[in-house]
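Subgroup meeting minutes
Present: P.N., E.W., G.H.
Scribe: E.W.

1. P.N. recapped why we're keeping a running log of single-chain structure predictions: easier to compare across weeks, and new members can see raw inputs and outputs side by side.
2. G.H. added today's entry (668 aa).
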Amino acid sequence: MHLFKYTIIAFLCTVSVFAQNHELGKVTKAELEEKSHPKDPSAPAAVLFSKRETAFNYSQSSGFEMVTEVEMKIKIYTKEGYKHASQAVYLYNNDTDKERIDISKAYTYNLVNGKVEKTKLKSEGEFMEQVGKNVRRKKIMLPDVKEGSIIEFRYVVYSPFFSQMPDWSFQQEIPVAYSSLTTRIPQYYTYSTNVRGYFTPVVNTTKRTASINSISKERSSGYVAKTTFSQDKLDYMETVTTYELSDLPALKDEAFVGNPENYISGIEHELSMISFPDEPVKMLSTTWEEVAKTIYKRDGFGDELSKTGYFEDDIKALVAPLKTPDEKINAIFNFVKERINWNGNYGILCDNGVKKAYKEKTGDVAEINLMLTAMLNYAGLEAYPVLVCSRSQKISLFPNRGAFDYVICAIKQGDKVVLLDATSKHSGVNTLPSRVLYWNGLMIDKNGHSTQIPLSSSVLSKEITVVQAALDATGKCTGKARVQYTDNNALDFRDIALKMSKESYLEKKEKRHTGLEISEVKFTNEKDLAKPVVEDYDFTYNNAVDIIGDKMYVNPLMYCALTQNPFKLDKREYPIDFVYPQEEKYTVSIALPAGYVIESLPKNTAVTMEDNLGSFKYSIQGQGDKVQLLMIMDLNQAVFTPDYYQTVKDFFGKMVEKQTEKIVLKKA
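Output recorded in log:
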């Protein structure tokens, strides 16, 4: 399945007539001649069909094996669609078993001199990569892709792992004409089915008889040995279920979605029961408590928390002069952040172990934060690991070990819980990176007992901007700006600005605002995480003023103004995710050019969302040869349910309207 970074919009589209053909190898001249999608002309590509069938095949040597076959046919319209000629499938393994893949019927079709020409996938277009201790990735790159090409491929994955079937997404980031999933499940296995998203598939279920054939042999004893063979046949029932959807919309840009994979229409299956003849029924449905206990007992988790010898001398020396718990927390937290570099790998189990990570000063998420937890406990604090589903992973609809891909640290202090993540050099106590401000975490102790921990922040992160500017008679605006960032805004700023040169940072900032030139940049408190980080710079801005006749039309917020409403849909079925509560505050003073006076100013206004979810205040006044503006926008919670979409959309619309209003100056 192709790996997409999804963004979402409900954009109704239909497909051309030729897309009713759902077989590989059936490519027509008409398909290749089509220049754009008939109902979504902006689409760079479209899925003509995608089909998956998962069945269980039996062999006498190894028993049942799950076999998943996928077929897909894609039309490429533009160069931006070329990326869909690169596909990837993830394969899993453990110490004894692994998944296998077979790729076939992989072709690119082009129209050459009026004739359909196909090019087969070459061996150099196939790659196998190890992307984790138990994960490989098979990639293919279809050859000879051009604007107008059609690509198709088929692959089969053979898997000994039954606990979950592969998830199936009907939707993609491009329009999908037709998508189907068929499962063929023997009576011995019972799966719970979860449907995700806002499009409901058509479901058809039937029963049919299937058979297991086995051959046994017996060798007689006596003077003349004789071998006899017999064939046994066991009939069983198989449930065949097909899910179908047609004319699915492209998944296009929409603001503040969080992880859109949570809202994509798809199917998930979890194995809940195994029942073979003459054997006890095995119930597999589990709880989060059981998941926590299982994970704690796994190699690479609980055993890593018990290792202390590699750091004991260093931590003893570190905490010896410290008296309070907070001093110890900060000292150990900063020690881990400074010593160990995160290698970018996620996961809840250590790949190489905490001892090696400590020695080599680099490690994955689990190694860094399990090490931190162990050190805090060694120093006499009550610390626990917290399992997390990061923003890069779908929220699980049922309890299972694969629900988590990240681990952080929690410290109990009376009735309070303090959260830490040492993978980020700029994170603070209870200031977590955005990638983990998502859903709930599962805090677990050594006995496997678990407690759900909300990970969303309730702290209002601030961005406070103060601008002193002056206009000249040509409309040129020059000035100084100071921006102060607190809490998660400070963390995000440090993660971006301090990881690049100042030149690169300025170039990136100037590109966001046409006409803006920045110089004399200075950062304050950039390494003191206990304080807000402050950014000072000088600027010149050439797009703040329109001159018409003897009048100037001035945008008082200049390059800071929000000029477009990020919410464009008429209706939205999924939450609005701002990551964390936030405040933007602007205090602007503009000195007017000589020879000009104020003719009119925008009206002052104040807007409050229902249930005190947010507010917006705009206050402007003239004082002699200056204009003073104060604007404050507060969003008081991180996530808004879909019920509030129209409220939020209207709120942002009013802000855009107000922030684009102009001061009118006239010649005295």
